[in-house]
Known about the structure:
The complex is a heterodimer.
Chain A: H1 2-20, E1 26-44, E2 47-65, E3 86-90, H2 115-119, E4 124-127, E5 132-135, E6 143-144, E7 150-154, H3 169-181, H4 188-194, E8 195-202, E9 205-210, E10 222-223, H5 233-236, E11 256-261, E12 267-272, H6 280-285, E13 292-296, H7 301-309, E14 315-317, H8 320-329, E15 333-335, E16 350-355, H9 365-373, H10 377-385, H11 402-407, H12 411-416, E17 419-422, E18 425-427, E19 430-431, H13 434-444, H14 453-460, E20 464-465, H15 469-478, E21 482-483, E22 489-490, E23 498-503, H16 510-524, E24 528-533, H17 537-542, E25 548-549, H18 565-568, H19 593-603, H20 610-627, E26 630-635, E27 640-643, E28 647-648, H21 667-670, E29 675-676
Parallel strand pairs in A: 3-13, 4-10, 23-24, 23-25
Antiparallel strand pairs in A: 1-2, 4-5, 6-7, 7-9, 8-9, 11-12, 12-13, 14-27, 15-27, 16-25, 16-26, 17-18, 19-20, 21-22, 28-29
Helix pairs in contact in A: 3-4, 7-8, 9-15, 10-13, 10-16, 19-20
Chain B: H1 2-32, H2 37-47, H3 57-67, H4 74-86, H5 101-136, H6 141-153, H7 158-172, H8 192-229, H9 232-239, H10 244-269, H11 276-281, H12 287-296, H13 300-328
Helix pairs in contact in B: 1-13, 5-8, 5-10, 5-13, 6-8, 7-8, 8-10, 9-10, 10-13, 12-13
Amino acid sequence: MRKTFFTVWIVLVVASLILAACGTPEVVEKPVEVTRVVVETQIVEGAPVEVTKIVKEVVTQEVVVTATPEPKEEAPDVLGLPRNEMFIAGQLTGRVGTPSNFNEWVGWKWRDRGMQNLANEPLWSVDFATGQIVPGLAAGDAVYNADFTEVTIPLRQGVAWDDGTPFTSADVVFTIETLIKYEGLNSHNFMVDNVVSVTAPDDYTVVFKLKQSNSRFHTTFLDRWGSTWIMPKHIFETVADPVTFEFNPFVGTGPYKLHSFDPNGYWTIWEKRADWDKSPTGIIFGEPKPKYVVFQAFANEGAKILAQLTHQLDAVDLSAEGLKAALAQGDTNRAYQPTFPWVVNNDPALTGLTFNTAKAPYDNPDVRWALLLAIDIVEYEGQAVDGTGTLSPVHVPSLGSYPADYIEPMQQWLSDFTLDLGNGETFKPYDTDAPKRLVVYVKDRGYVVSEEAVMVAKTFGLGWYKYAPDVAAKLLEKNGFSKDADGKWLLPDGTPWRIEVMSRSDMSHLEFKNAAAAVQQWKKFGIDAAHVPSDNVSALTGNGEFDVAGNWPAQEPWGAGADLYRVLDYYNSAYIEPVGTLTKAHTSRWSTPEMDDVIKRLRETDPANTAEVIAIGTEGLKLLVKEMPGIPTFGYIGFVSWDQTYWTNWPGSENPYNQPYTHWGPFKYMTPFLEPTGN
Amino acid sequence: MEFVKQYLIPRLVQYFLVMFVGITAVFILPRLAPSDPVERTITQLRSQGSYLDPGTMDEFIEDLTEMYGLGGSWLEQYGAFWQRLFHADFGVSFFQFPTPVNELIRTALPWTAALLLTTTVISWVGGNLVGGLAGYFNRKRWSKALDSVVMIIRPLPYYIMSFALLLLFAYVVRWFPVSGGTDIGRRAAFNWPFIKDVLRHAFLPALSLVILGGAIWFQTMKLIVQNVNAEAFVQYAKLGGVKEGRIVSRYVIRNAMLPQITGLALALGQIFSGALITEIVFSYPGLGTLLYNAIITGDYNLIMGITVISIVAITTAVLLIDLLYPLFDPRVRYA
């Protein structure tokens, strides 16, 4: 009897906790004042000039509210620092392993703790939400000579390091010379291989002479979650060994300076500089609003959600399930999109599956295509991410300028693309209705979505491939595969076909979700498929010790501009290593002479020549579709949760004035637009 | 003299032999794993979004190999390892390059030691005391009620139980912080505000460990006491009119304590492996996550640093308990 009582009591407590976490969000419309960064083209002295303006306007937004009101609380101080002047962000890469070491030129230093995203400025930054490349320490574009062996970079005037020392071209020259001099610095080999000399004709110009023609040399200084950073000469020139130097306290050119950090690596506090107007952020966008910014690491997602629900965390990246819980329970929480699918769907990365093309039978394009056609993408995406991803049929994500530059112009080619099934049979696999099928799926799930063609294309993509298991079977049979009496596929030698799909072991990661969904699809098709999660997946795939992996099917593009050199160069045959040695190329280990030719021509093309860059890039994408070394599925999905208790005017989908993450470099450019709520 | 010859010397020989074999195994095993620290550094940099120029990868690998001290044969590395070990130097961490392993351990160890020493002792004393009494008075209602509670707690997965505590005390009633070892911005100092802050943050992790540890000690002690209680010498004592308090403390508990003392020594030795799940649930600093990250990143030096300390602690604890055992159990006294 007593045992029964205790059991019932425990069940009731657990049930009440679960119920408390399961409120149903309600969507209402209300007017909201937003600040936008608007780029307008004006005619100045007869020439069109792009002008950046900051405007405020009232718009009607759909806002998610919950039925559970949060009690009003006084903003508590955090050890004497006013909470309502403090912005607290979750740290994406977790607890800092080197809390006292800020030397980001050596190894990995958890630079999203505020170094890259707040206190440091690169020459240029990619903002994937606006599609702009923002000049930070640079005053304009890099200018190459005719054969791309010399590049001149103009530097911004009026910038100072946070200790007051002016930033000049001497800092850039010193940085490059130091990188060349010391082995062990991350960019040492790149600079040794590329730079003959670097000079400063004046305080705000640097000129690089290059060892060979390189039209993309300047991109080493373009921050896309990392770049070659500039050292403060006045500090590093006094250091005996820049490799072991801790660079503590950190000195940067960003609008914030180091306040304090946890010796155990759980938090780092940054304080707004008194001379914030001497940072590129301040010069371009104005005064940052938060006086303090904290990056805090949590070792588990539950703690992140609890911290946000108790208003101790303003912005955080969660899993799909975590975001749903946070939105359901927090009446001051919002996601990137106010309504379904809520998620960040303009991150410049593409998820999917990668084949190990160095291993049979995945070295055969027919087999790779058969495995693609055995996937019902609606079921697949439903299982992986509940229909929230944007499909892409090619090896760049369907976001930013990529649909307009590549995917839309390729529609006809994709529709005409034909597979040879043998015996004179052919098949056109492209399916422009795939996004519409996804719409049906999400409506069946009870979500409200727009069926306007433009919105469907933006949310779900322009198309994918047909679910055609019968065609997949023909492609396999053409190559000697067969089925046993139980309907299981056999390899051409008659042995059972087992596919191991490898991924990270973190169940919330999109690599895991892609791998799990693929296994289900291929099992349904009659293949003995198994999911193999591993914490060592990067090394295993890098060494070619896998069949199929749930990792990115192509290198991530820049996220701004049309240039695909960053994507395609990873298929360069010169970088491929034999199985057992870490590859320098894409983990698919795929390349062809045709792709090498595309890469070579792209390298010789001025990246500013957009038409030519797109034409050559399109050729590369067509080669990838024909050969399919990896299956592109849907774009990377970010699950960002914002608490609006202390800060508002977030760069959500209705007002994407900046990329939405706090861990990307341009977060610093978000800080002038965040509005305190007055709580 | 007989004690030294027959008891002490064999145990000292065994002590040093176990340490030598254990430390050698710690040197070899990570190198057999399919996880090369140089490759892990490169894949880590890539997976964290860094673009590494494929054209200069070979030189980068050479530089890292040299910096990490992984050049030369295993034998040369093994020799260098023992040389460093005699100077209590474990080299630099690869994952947290160039931070010395000693510095990482020095930062994390006090948190782990303070939390686990305290909770191990509290749960051992509490669990054994209450378990002993509950075992002796096993027909009493309070004993049965306690047993029922422990029967519910014991099978609960520790992660679920500790997260439920976090949910209840950090979110529902908000008496304790959600995460961390101290408040954001708190600097270490030997003063009351700092100590109070540390205690407030340590309370929930400690409570979770005490509940689980206490439940385990309670159950084992209760079972042992029930068995001892049924032994003939206890029955004779009862029949002989020995006072119940004396029977409980001198006859039953004292005999039942012997395996529990061994268990305590081993539990104290294992402290140096950290408490990984506790650190994850409460975002608490300590050796657990340090060791976990070292293993998954192939950080040989850090793995060796932590496990060598752990090996020394466990073998020393076992040696001490071997040497002290005759004090508790007259049956193993020599000489």
